[in-house]
Amino acid sequence: EPPSEKYEYQAEVSRLMDLIVHSLYSNKEVFLRELVSNASDALDKLRFLSVTEPGLLKDAVDLDIRIQTDKDNGIITITDSGIGMTRQELVDCLGTIAQSGTAKFFKALKDSKDAGVDSNLIGQFGVGFYSAFLVSDKVVVSTKSPKSDKQYVWEGEANANSYTVREETDPEKFIPRGTRLTLYLKRDDKGFAHPERIQNLVKNYSQFVSFPIYTWQEKGFTKEVEVDDDPSEAKKDGDEDATVEKKKKTKKVIERYWDWELTNETQPIWLRNPKDVTTEEYNEFFKKTFNEYLDPLASSHFTTEGEVEFRSILFVPAVKKDDIASMNKTKNIRLYVKRVFISDDFDGELFPRYLSFVKGVVDSNDLPLNVSREILQESRIVRIMRKRLVRKAFDMILGISLSENREDYEKFWENFGKNLKLGCIEDQANHKRIAPLLRFFSSQSEEELISLDEYVENMKPEQKDIYYIAADSLTSAKNAPFLERLLEKDFEVLFLVDPMDEIAIQNLKSYKEKNFVDISKEDLDLGDKNEEKEKEIKQEFGHMCDWIKKRLGNKVASVQVSSRLSRSPCVLVSGKFGWSANMERLMKAQTM
Ligand code: ADP
Ligand code: MG
Questions:
Q1: Is residue 482 a contact partner of residue 545, using CB atoms and an 8 Å limit?
Q2: Helix (H, G, I), strand (E, B) or coil at 370
Q3: What DSSP character marks residue 208?
Q4: Atom 17 of ligand 1, nearest CA residue
Q5: Residue 226: Cβ within 10 Å count
Q6: What mean pLDDT value characterizes the chain?
Q7: In this structure, which ligand is nearest to the CA of 128?
């Protein structure tokens, strides 16, 4: 028998295992979610690779996951027929944490001071393979990669800093392809090895895994068996005829046996008819698929036909992922081709950057299975898909804004308002869709944000333009002398107090054919000019202006008489073509 080799874990791994065990003790059952999701990933990888290498599927084994429990001995085995691991992969994957999910969790825990992290938040992180040690004293991974003709066994124990790898030599344990995990449960956790317990956990955690998950269940059926009426009496009689005459009686007994039972729903939710899917199902799907812990604000399930055919479900999350989770940044859109999972790394091709908060699945029938980023970037089909997806995303956001529950949109705006403003800058083609979604404070609404539609409705009959002032705070906007005349006329003025507001508005230029006008710029025309009178005044104060300009020198471009103030004696304004004072502040802040 080839010797087994001993390896030390990378130092980080030992610490990670400690952390997992200490922070998740009250959420132990996540181990099953993690191990099933690894099995599902392994099946996805195999299916994906087999598109270009059909040879990988030469062992005609179904793509599925099987979980068996031995409650007397406290053992769970999880077997998948996925891609498996070579000897080198075993060492690379299960001895280090270069891997995605686990590393993220590790960092998040390190970042957060208290190790007890909110148990809801835990759901956001893949905690990975090592979560097996939450419930196990010993874990054995036996795995066969189609790239290797040998099967290898990884063996590790809780609280150890090393593990072993050896070749599998017992033919009884051979598997044609894939991975079998055997968990030897800790004394207190043997309860997990009950078939019903596992069944419930699978139903709860893994209902959206797209491969069948079978659990080993005890079954029974009743059957009627014949019983002799009373054999003892018949014998006593010694009467042969009586035996023949004897009435046959039957009795119901329960026959017990064990068998695999399909435990999850494998029809992907996006292939179902939207009419048959409940909001709860969408919400669950969203939370399970994207590791979210709150219901989404909105979802949209649709099919497009004709030129390009695809199905999709999109979601707007209720919260923005903060720093910890923004390591998850991409992975918002899961792309499938003909139900085969391709990648969750192509968001950039399917959505513009500013809409990257939208999450969802997209399943196309028109793309090749071996699709790559390069293909996506070139593809006319993808251009059409992108257009439709963006449109649907906007419909969904508009839906939130029209909802009777005003709070929903407030929440949306607080989380993703900046994204829409970025959209004003980056996506000219969708200005018409973005503009109605913007929100601002104004001189007549300092507490509640208003939409541009609300502004336009509130415009005075003689008012031509949409007025705004950009400032660094509501207070300074409110106290700006530029406001005086407009307030007198009862014209509403938008207060652009977010640094991005002004740039967004300048990119829009107009809304419903009304121009945006900065009231702090020179030449503000309120439509009430009295040319005669202005001429007179200009003449009267001409000398005074010259004098002031001389005194101020290069500090100002010019000094002019103006009709725009009512109470303040003078005001500093920006040149018509120059930056506004606010922009100047921004630019300064950026170059410093
Ligand atoms: P993650 O899934 O985030 O990569 P895990 O700790 O869950 O992190 O898994 C680590 C790695 O181990 C996986 O990326 C994969 O390469 C490998 N692995 C784990 N389970 C399996 C399995 N059942 N089949 C094949 N590879 C696996
Ligand atoms: Mg994993």
A1: no
A2: coil
A3: T
A4: 93
A5: 9
A6: 86
A7: 1
User: Cα separation of 561 and 345, whole Å?
Assistant: 59
Is the CB of 417 inside a 6 Å radius of any atom of ligand 1?
no
CA distance 288 to 205: 7
339: left (phi over 0), alpha (psi -120 to 50) or beta: left
Nearest to 104 by CA among 134, 126, 130, 132: 126
- Provide the residue type at 253 as one letter: V
Percent of the chain with pLDDT over 70: 86
Contact 425, 438 (CB under 8 A): no
Residue corresponding to tokens 């812990």? 293
Question: Do 516 and 510 form a contact (C-beta atoms < 8 A)?
Answer: yes
Pocket test of ligand 1: the residue of 16, 93, 145 to mutate, having most ligand atoms within 8 Å of its CB, is 93
Per DSSP, the three-state class of 515 is strand
Distances (CA, A) of 378 to 238, 331, 336, 371, 373: 94, 21, 18, 11, 9
Residue 2 has pLDDT above 60, yes or no: yes
* DSSP letter string, 148-187: -SSEEEEEEETT-SEEEEEE---GGG--SSEEEEEEEE-G
Which residue is closest in CA terms to ligand 1's atom 20?
Answer: 38
- 234-273: per-residue pLDDT in tens? 455 555 555 555 567 888 999 999 999 999 987 889 999 9
DSSP characters over 255-301: EEEEEEEE-S--S-GGGS-GGG--HHHHHHHHHHHHT-SS--SEEEE
CA 145–ligand 1 middle distance (angstroms): 13
pLDDT digits (tens, 9 = 90+) for 531-578: 788 788 888 888 888 898 899 888 888 888 876 666 777 877 776 666
Structure tokens at 266: 């494998």
Residue 410 scores a pLDDT above 60: yes
The structure tokens listed for 264 are 């999850």
Q: Which two tokens stand for residue 327?
A: 């390591």
Strand partners, 468: 494, 518
CA 42–ligand 1 middle distance (angstroms): 8
Rounded distance between C-alpha atoms, residue 244 and residue 235, angstroms: 12
458 in a labelled binding site: no
**Pocket lining: 100 vs ligand 1, CB cutoff 6 Å:** yes
State which of 6-20, 87-101, 381-395, 541-555 shows the largest mean pLDDT.
381-395
Q: In what order do the strands lie in the sheet with 75-80?
A: 5-8, 162-167, 151-157, 136-144, 178-185, 75-80, 65-70, 213-228, 248-262
**CA–CA dist 144, 592 (Å, integer):** 57
Residue 425 Cα distances to 122, 353, 500, 568, angstroms: 36, 12, 10, 35
Would you say 375 and 368 are in contact if contact means Cβ atoms under 8 Å apart? Answer: yes
Element (H, E) at 376: helix 373-378
Q: For residue 126, give the ligand 1 atom closest to its CA.
A: 3
179 is in an annotated binding site: yes
Cα three-residue angle 422-425-429, rounded to 5 degrees: 110
Closest residue CA from atom 25 of ligand 1? 84
Q: Any binding-site annotation on 125?
A: yes
Residues facing 106 on adjacent strands? none
Query: Residue 323 — very low, low, confident or very high, per pLDDT cuts 50/70/90?
Result: very low
Q: Give me 394's structure tokens.
A: 């906007």
- Flag whether 373 is marked binding: yes
Instruction: Choose the residue to mutate in 64, 99, 206 for probing ligand 1, maximizing ligand atoms within 8 Å of C-beta.
Output: 99
ipTM over 0.95: yes
